[in-house]
């Protein structure tokens, strides 16, 4: 059975169709879910895509967190449903308290748009289940606020608990422990700054992102 | 009654403030020597209708906890603006 993946669209989201295109190429059906919806309607997984939800006003993700759909997304995640936030979606999930830590401005105050190498640190998340631990993926990043930060106790806990799913090899934005992506304790909620959907076509920067979205699709089908 | 409120949001102590640092480093080239500890934050001004100042302050505190500040990276300082008290923001 093919899972349907819900992709949340806020005012200001801009990667929802990129994500949908790749997931559909992998055999999934997709549905764009407007942020005002009060349910995610029986989908197998939810993606919060990149962009600038609500214009990034106040802080990235700060206002998106209060969109009606986020309550449904939180309930879906609490029931074990796979939820993945990419870039701005990662910021939304940290602001919503569904993932630990926060994303602050890049060291050097530069918007960074380039392809970077990331190491898969943990395969016990819905986004990395099909990847190999230690595998290096070339993935595009495209952000100003991707500098991951959290308090020392949280850092110890997420490192010890295998919640760091992706780590930059050259730490372009100054993230704590070069963290590029984290999961919650149960591995069903994941946020990453790189864009796997933009590394899913041989005509682009390669296809290293496919394994991540394939992992999500597999998780959505179980 | 209307209470004027000023909320100042700053980075948590010990957290890097790259914007403040960039400004601090630019100042000597304009001849401002000896300036240290530049921090950049945000200020919110608004008025709250409440029976007492304590209630107005509590409302502002809850706003900070839920929306205006992210406690993981920021702290909020709330002041009741006595000069604008009673005036619409």
Describe the protein.
The complex is a heterodimer of chains A (222) and B (89). By secondary structure, chain A is an alpha/beta fold. Chain A has a single domain, classed as Rossmann fold (3-Layer(aba) Sandwich). Chain A has helices at 16-25, 68-78, 88-95, 152-160, 210-221; strands at 4-9, 29-34, 45-48, 83-86, 102-104, 112-120, 136-143, 147-149, 164-168, 179-183, 189-192. Chain A is globular. The model of chain B has no long low-confidence stretch (mean pLDDT 89). A three-stranded antiparallel beta sheet of chain B has the order 2-1-3, covered by helices on one side. Helix content of chain B is 28%, strand content 29%. Chain B is elongated. The chains are: A alpha/beta (222), B alpha+beta (89). Chain A binds chain B through residues 58-59, 62-63, 66, 94-95, 101-102, 104-109, 149-151, 174, and chain B through 15-16, 18-19, 22, 67-68, 70, 72-73.
Contiguous runs where pLDDT drops below 50 for at least 5 residues of chain B: none
Number of strands of chain A: 11
Order of helices and strands of chain A: EHEEHEHEEEEHEEEH
What is the CATH architecture annotation of chain A?
3-Layer(aba) Sandwich
Order of helices and strands of chain B: EHEHE
Considering the protein shown, what is the CATH homologous superfamily of chain B? Phosphoribosylformylglycinamidine synthase subunit PurS
How would a crystallographer describe the biggest sheet of chain B?
3 strands, antiparallel
Oligomeric description of these chains: heterodimer
Distance separating the two termini of chain A: 10 Å
Gyration radius of chain B, in Å = 16 Å
Q: Identify the overall geometry of chain A.
A: globular
Number of domains of chain A: 1
Total of DSSP H or I helical runs spanning 4+ residues of chain B: 2
Q: Percent of residues of chain B in helical segments?
A: 25-40%
The share of residues in extended strands of chain A comes to 25-35%
Content-based structural category of chain A? alpha/beta
What topology, given as strand order, has the largest sheet of chain B?
2-1-3
């Amino acid at each position: 059975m093919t899972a349907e993946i819900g992709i949340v669209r806020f005012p200001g989201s801009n990667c929802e169709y990129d994500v949908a295109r790749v997931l559909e190429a992998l055999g999934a059906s997709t549905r764009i879910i407007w942020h005002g919806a009060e349910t995610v309607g029986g989908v197998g997984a939810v993606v919060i895509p990149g962009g600038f939800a609500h214009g990034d006003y106040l802080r990235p993700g700060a206002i998106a967190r209060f969109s009606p759909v986020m309550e449904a997304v939180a309930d879906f995640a609490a029931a074990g449903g796979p939820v993945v936030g990419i870039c701005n979606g990662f910021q939304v999930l940290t602001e919503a308290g569904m993932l630990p830590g926060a994303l602050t401005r890049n060291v050097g105050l530069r918007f960074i748009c380039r392809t970077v190498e990331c190491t898969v640190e943990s395969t016990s998340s819905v986004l990395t289940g099909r990847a190999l631990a230690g595998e290096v993926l070339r993935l595009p990043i495209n952000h100003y606020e991707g500098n991951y930060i959290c308090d020392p106790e949280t850092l110890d806990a997420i490192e010890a608990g295998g919640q760091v799913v992706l780590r930059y090899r050259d730490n372009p934005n100054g993230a704590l422990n070069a963290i590029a992506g984290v999961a919650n304790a149960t591995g069903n909620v994941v946020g990453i700054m790189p864009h796997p959907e933009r590394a899913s076509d041989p005509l682009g920067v390669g296809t290293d992102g496919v394994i991540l979205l394939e992992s999500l699709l597999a998780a959505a089908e179980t | 009654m209307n209470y004027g409120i000023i909320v100042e949001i700053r980075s948590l102590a010990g957290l890097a403030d790259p914007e403040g640092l960039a400004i601090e480093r630019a100042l000597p080239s304009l001849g401002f020597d000896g300036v240290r500890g530049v921090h950049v934050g945000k200020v919110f001004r608004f008025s709250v209708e409440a029976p007492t100042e304590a209630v107005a302050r509590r409302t502002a505190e809850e706003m900070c906890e839920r929306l205006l500040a992210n406690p993981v990276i920021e702290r909020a300082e709330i002041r009741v603006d006595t000069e604008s008290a009673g005036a619409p923001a």
